[in-house]
Design the sequence.
């Protein structure tokens, strides 16, 4: 493996919490991924993208919630997501917020594992009246996880899939703008090449106590 | 008791039997626990360990009371805990309670320390759960000294200072109970166990084997790092969870309602998923034997195997039948099979007698050292680096370095 090819590979994780198949949530996730990948490829990056429908691991997520550990299938998904150079996370808006499945997935992930992750958030709903859920629900959640959320979140209401250039900022425009914000962060990321050792002890840790105990 | 120890550990939950809807009273559950422990000795098991909890629906809030009674009612079985809360108990009281128990039980006592994961217990005892690790580290450092030093002057973050304090009574024969540190997922606790050359117990039963394998490997590596012996000489204990009937189909049919409604994993994964992902084994005695022997493949030869047998609302009668199967059909085979191909360097499970013998060897070599040339001492020290020596031999030098 040459140094050049090693530095030019990036991984992108795409998480969709859409429930129907096909779903407009997945459609939005795919569009965001394609736009991001195409920008990275223009800059000479080879992108390995992995897309996960949370429906496929829905029972595993709830089992993890109850038992405290992920099934092998869910663990593989979590490793791909947390080890990626960037994440595109898209949820339907249910009852004014992210879906419970979407939240549950991030609830069972170690709350340190998303630190520094470049994230593009997206959401879908029946009407544009829910669009602010991106900024009052998804963005604070990723901020809590110390992820780096790009300024543009992409919301697609049903009507966005049928509106043209006369609608002002169209869905394709927003997708392109968001991808343009995410791609440079993914390009600059070293996350996928980092080795994470769960047994690394905090530098200040001492097995006899690090305080004034004597 | 040589080689490996086999026993049971209890959580002490008062749980409704899902097949009858009947919930035992606290009194019944406490008496059942005593019956179960005595049965464990009767069927030839080596260890009985009780948990410690301070909230309903659990009954074991006072482990040394229970173990003191059992000390009088039993003759051979080693009495232990699973776990004693090092975070919220006063280490002075732990030192005293377990020293008294040691004298009452003629040394048939050891202790497993754990942090506890019930949030409100910390504030109920005046502590902060966010300080769980620092509490475990500092309080054990004090406990370790109280058992070894006649007069202790101490000051720390989490307890009122001590000046000129002597924990009484002194440990039996001057040898403290062997200490196991239990943790599911904190490498800090494995590090602590390794530092002192103490035992490390992995709960094992609610998590995938791959996780346990990594924790034990880490502990073994750190045990060697701190100079207590080779990684293979570290003192390892594992939990296990089984339900048996002669025919495995009967075991599955009978246990399923208990599994489906159990406090820890109930209403989550199926019995089949959980048995595939964790060490839980529901089947025939032979299946339990095969699965348990497989533990060695990913943790190495180890010293103590404890089974959880009495939770999730299983009635006493059933638990006693399970102990008959465990003692008569499973453990004798496990003893024989685990002894095969066990490398000579792997230490036997620690007992009071082995710790006393180790302390006498250390004292003898120290006397010899003061009489003879220093080169002899160096040779003696490296050769007697078996794990049983480690707590006495190791406690001071690494801490000097750390300071």
Sequence:
């Amino acid at each position: 493996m040459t140094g050049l090819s090693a530095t030019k590979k990036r991984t992108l994780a795409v998480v969709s919490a859409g429930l129907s198949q096909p779903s407009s949530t997945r459609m939005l996730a795919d569009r965001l991924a394609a736009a991001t990948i195409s920008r990275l490829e223009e800059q000479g990056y080879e992108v390995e993208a992995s897309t996960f429908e949370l429906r496929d691991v829905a029972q595993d997520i709830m089992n993890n919630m109850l038992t405290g550990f992920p099934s092998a299938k869910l663990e593989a998904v979590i490793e791909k997501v947390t080890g990626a150079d960037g994440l595109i996370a898209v949820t339907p808006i249910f009852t004014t917020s992210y879906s419970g499945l979407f939240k549950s997935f991030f609830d069972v992930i170690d709350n340190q594992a998303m630190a520094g992750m470049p994230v593009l958030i997206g959401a879908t709903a029946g009407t544009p009246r829910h669009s602010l859920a991106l900024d009052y629900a998804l963005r604070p959640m990723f901020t809590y996880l110390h992820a780096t959320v790009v300024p543009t979140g992409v919301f697609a209401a049903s009507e966005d899939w049928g509106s043209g250039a006369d609608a002002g900022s169209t869905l394709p425009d927003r997708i392109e703008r968001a991808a343009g914000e995410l791609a440079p962060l993914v390009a600059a990321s070293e996350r996928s090449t980092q080795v994470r050792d769960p047994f690394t002890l905090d530098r200040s840790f001492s097995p006899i106590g690090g305080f004034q105990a004597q | 008791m040589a080689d490996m120890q086999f026993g049971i550990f209890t959580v002490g939950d008062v749980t409704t039997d899902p097949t009858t809807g009947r919930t035992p009273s606290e009194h019944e559950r406490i008496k059942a626990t005593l019956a179960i422990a005595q049965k464990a000795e009767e069927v030839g098991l080596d260890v009985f360990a009780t948990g410690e909890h301070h909230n309903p629906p659990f009954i074991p809030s006072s482990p040394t009371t229970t173990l003191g009674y059992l000390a009088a009612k039993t003759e051979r079985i080693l009495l232990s805990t699973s776990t004693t809360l090092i975070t919220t108990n006063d280490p002075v009281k732990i030192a005293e309670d377990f020293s008294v128990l040691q004298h009452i039980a003629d040394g048939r006592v050891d202790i497993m320390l754990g942090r506890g994961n019930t949030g409100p217990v910390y504030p109920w005892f005046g502590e902060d759960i966010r300080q769980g690790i620092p509490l475990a580290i500092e309080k054990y450092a004090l406990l370790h000294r109280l058992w070894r030093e006649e007069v202790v002057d101490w000051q720390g973050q989490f307890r009122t200072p001590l000046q000129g304090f002597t924990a009484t009574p002194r440990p039996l024969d001057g040898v403290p109970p062997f200490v196991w540190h239990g943790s599911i997922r904190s490498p800090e606790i494995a590090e602590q166990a390794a530092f002192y050359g103490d035992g490390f117990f992995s709960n094992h039963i609610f998590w995938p084997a791959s996780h346990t394998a990594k924790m034990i490997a880490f502990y073994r590596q750190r045990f060697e790092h701190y100079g207590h012996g080779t990684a293979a000489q570290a003192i390892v204990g594992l939990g296990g969870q089984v339900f048996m009937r002669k025919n495995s189909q009967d075991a599955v049919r009978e246990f399923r309602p208990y599994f489906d409604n159990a406090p820890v994993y109930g209403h989550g994964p199926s019995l089949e998923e959980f048995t595939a992902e964790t060490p839980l084994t529901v089947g025939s005695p032979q299946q339990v034997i095969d699965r348990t022997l497989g533990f060695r493949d990913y943790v190495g030869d180890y010293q103590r195997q404890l089974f959880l047998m009495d939770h999730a609302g299983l009635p006493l009668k059933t638990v006693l039948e399970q102990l008959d199967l465990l003692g008569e059909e499973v453990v004798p085979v496990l003893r024989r099979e685990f002894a095969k191909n066990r490398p000579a360097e792997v230490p036997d499970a620690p007992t009071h007698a082995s710790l006393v013998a180790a302390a006498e060897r250390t004292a003898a070599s120290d006397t010899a050292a003061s009489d003879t040339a220093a080169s002899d001492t160096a040779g003696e020290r490296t050769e007697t680096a078996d794990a049983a020596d480690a707590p006495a031999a190791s406690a001071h030098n690494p801490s000097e370095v750390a300071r």
User: Anything to note?
Assistant: Chain B has one domain: 5-350. The interface with chain A takes residues 133-134, 137-138, 141-142, 154-157, 187-188, 191-192, 194-196, 206-208, 211, 214, 218, 264-269, 273-274, 277, 399, 402 of chain B (CB under 8 Å).
